[in-house]
UniProtKB/TrEMBL annotation:
Chain segments carrying region Disordered: 213-281
Domain called NECAP PHear: residue spans: 17-177
Compositionally skewed regions (Pro residues) per UniProt: 213-223
Bias (Polar residues): 235-267
Native species: Cinchona calisaya
Pfam families from the UniProt entry: DUF1681
Protein known as: NECAP PHear domain-containing protein
CDD domains documented for this protein: PHear_NECAP
Length: 281
């Protein structure tokens, strides 16, 4: 069984598609001294102005494996490669004094024996260095999500599930009750109507509201009879006669009428001078 699993894993790895997560046409490799203590690497201990190799770098995802390849710019010849696998130590370690330099753990199969070594890796700018780390981080996230999905699938398969399917010879019978003449009224009002006796139902009448008719329209006015018509005014009355009547009064009477009373002030007398009446005619 174990041999079959290993064969299946190898076949899957060979059939897996390679996806390029990151690539940069320029990077630098340094030959660094072996680390004596467990302290972190420092780039100021390397001679960063004298690199051992210059070329291109690619980060490739192939199934569950992530490969870091150092290739020649012009020919594409492989210089070195490192592998990022689940459950193994991370092959990239950042230095503590710079964000552009890393220590890379490369592997090589020589004569059937797997050997590894540490080399220095540097970039000219910070942007490709950040993108390089982000590509490795994305692959690790992919591995974690895949591992979580496999665990959930195994847990689902282990749990017992109820089989609701109909087996051979079984039938499903549904009994439906048909209620004829069902009323859509509320039970509350039905109970209230049932509690009333027949006498109450008969005696209780709906009160009739009387509507008073509108008043009749008023009678038309009767025409005025000729007998009750006002007396006609004298037609022979002229302006000359009125003037003669006024002149018939004596001058003494006119002076008495025109004289204001002793107690009345001349200012209180209203102004009746509206001009010559005869001229106005």
């Amino acid at each position: 069984m174990e041999k079959e699993k290993k064969i299946d894993e190898k076949e899957e790895a060979e059939e897996a598609i390679e996806l390029i997560l990151f690539q940069v046409p320029e990077c630098y490799v340094y030959l660094i001294p072996p680390r004596i203590s467990s302290a972190s690497y420092r780039a100021d201990e390397w001679n960063v102005n004298e690199w051992a190799w210059e070329g291109a770098l690619k980060v490739i995802s192939k199934g569950e494996e992530c490969i870091i390849r150092l290739e020649d710019k012009s020919t594409g010849e492989l210089y070195a490669q490192a592998f990022l696998r689940d459950g193994e130590p991370h092959p990239v370690e950042a230095v503590i004094d710079s964000s552009r330099y890393f220590a890379l753990r490369v592997e090589e199969n020589i004569g059937g024996r797997l050997r590894h070594a540490f080399i220095g890796l540097g970039f000219r700018e910070r942007t490709p260095a950040y993108d390089f780390q982000a590509a490795l981080h994305d692959h690790m996230k992919y591995l974690n999500k895949k591992k979580t999905a496999e665990e959930m699938e195994q847990q689902y398969q282990r749990t017992s599930s109820v089989d609701y399917s109909l087996k051979e010879g079984e039938k499903l019978v549904l009994k439906l009750k048909n209620k004829s003449g069902c009323s859509t009224g509320s039970k509350f009002f039905e109970q209230g109507l049932n509690n009333l006796s027949l006498e109450e139902k008969v005696d209780k009448k709906v009160p009739v509201i009387a509507i008073i008719p509108p008043p009749p329209p008023p009678a038309p006015l009767s025409p005025v009879s000729p007998e009750k018509s006002p007396p006609e005014l004298p037609s022979n009355l002229s302006l000359k006669e009125t003037s003669e009547v006024k002149n018939s009064t004596s001058p003494e009477e006119q002076s008495i009428e025109s004289a204001p009373p002793e107690n009345q002030n001349t200012r209180d007398i209203p102004d009746d001078d509206f001009g010559d009446f005869q001229a106005a005619g």
